[in-house]
Specification:
This protein has 302 residues and is an alpha/beta fold. It is built from ten helices and 14 strands. The chain is 33% helix and 22% strand. The strands form two sheets. Strands 1, 4, 6, 7, 8, 9, 10, 11, 12, 13 and 14 form an eleven-stranded mixed β-sheet that branches. A three-stranded antiparallel β-sheet has the order 2-3-5.
Length: 302
């Protein structure tokens, strides 16, 4: 009897795990149905990417949340991407929860149903489109270079022969490595060539590059990231200087895993509907102005 009880307990545990991961516990025929059935959408994003997404140190986890125990709630996160993700949940009629995997895990695809969608300022690239599906863009940002304030560097050419930091598996790292295939952007969106003989120093996220400079790290003199991140670094008093001119522009969108067990077509259609409506009625512009103090929701050259 003890062995039978033990086996029964194991089966219950496995069932709970499958249900939590969107697997065998759902009777839904697609991912949207599974999300509606469980009552929450699990969004991957970065907890250290202000002002797009970062931890709310004053927030506390609500007792009535449907979010899994290892996921963060909307009360525990804040930022532009977080507010966009919250809007997704509201549009679907469910709670929004946040998973925080590494960026390279998100961009690699094959998420094993661990989260439903990425709303994390991901650039649409041809390489990523092979493994991920994308929504319509919800905003657009220039990629820029910032240097340590005491470096004496005042132009992009001054980075020749220097070490430059970027987040691992980001478009910023691809650009620094002259990996135009990995960058996967149209030529019209690329504005500058990489300085000669640059040594690339990858960290887990590009925000960590700025934080490392502020902490006194000296094995690189600059970093490449979104202009929104550099502006936030400057506002926070970090000892960096933004070089003039963008190096390329990015179309940023929600991403969906092509390897998802459940079909994502209807979910992507819903997100497209929402983003299109938020562009039209000004909600995305309002969020952009709130978090960036500029409207970044209009496509370049429009």
């Amino acid at each position: 009897m003890k062995k039978l009880l033990t086996l029964a307990s194991l089966l219950v545990a496995v069932s709970l795990v499958l249900t939590a991961c969107g697997g065998g516990g759902s009777s839904a025929s697609d991912l949207l149905g599974a999300i509606e059935e469980r009552g929450y959408v699990l969004v991957s994003t970065d907890p250290n990417y202000a002002p797009q997404s970062f931890l709310n140190t004053e927030g506390s986890r609500p007792s009535d949340t449907k979010c899994p125990g290892d996921a963060l709630t909307t009360a525990e996160m804040q930022g532009f991407d977080v507010d966009v993700a919250k809007a997704v949940g509201e549009y679907l009629g469910v709670e929004t929860c946040f998973a925080t995997p590494s960026w390279d895990a998100i961009t690699a695809g094959n998420w094993a149903d661990k989260w439903d969608v990425s709303v994390g300022s991901m650039t649409i690239t041809t390489a990523r489109q092979k493994i991920l599906d994308f929504s319509v863009p919800y905003y657009y940002t220039p990629a820029v270079v910032a240097v340590a304030a005491d470096s004496g560097i005042t132009s992009l050419d001054g980075l020749s022969g220097q070490a430059v930091c970027a987040g691992a598996s980001t478009t910023y790292e691809f650009w620094l490595n002259n990996d135009m295939e990995g960058l996967g952007l149209p030529e019209s969106s690329i504005y500058a060539e990489v300085p000669a003989d640059v040594t690339v120093v990858p960290l887990e996220t590009d925000q960590e590059c700025a934080q490392a400079i502020a902490a006194g790290r000296t094995d690189f003199v600059a970093y490449v990231t979104s202009e929104t991140v550099v502006d936030a670094n400057l506002a926070a008093g970090m000892p960096v200087v933004k070089l003039d001119g963008a190096v390329y522009s990015e179309d940023l969108a929600a991403a969906f895993d092509k390897g998802s067990t459940l079909d994502t077509t209807s979910l992507r259609a819903k997100v497209d509907e929402l983003f299109t409506a938020m562009h039209s009625d000004g909600r995305l512009s309002a969020l952009s102005n709130q978090w960036f103090e500029i409207d970044l929701t209009q496509a370049p050259n429009q």
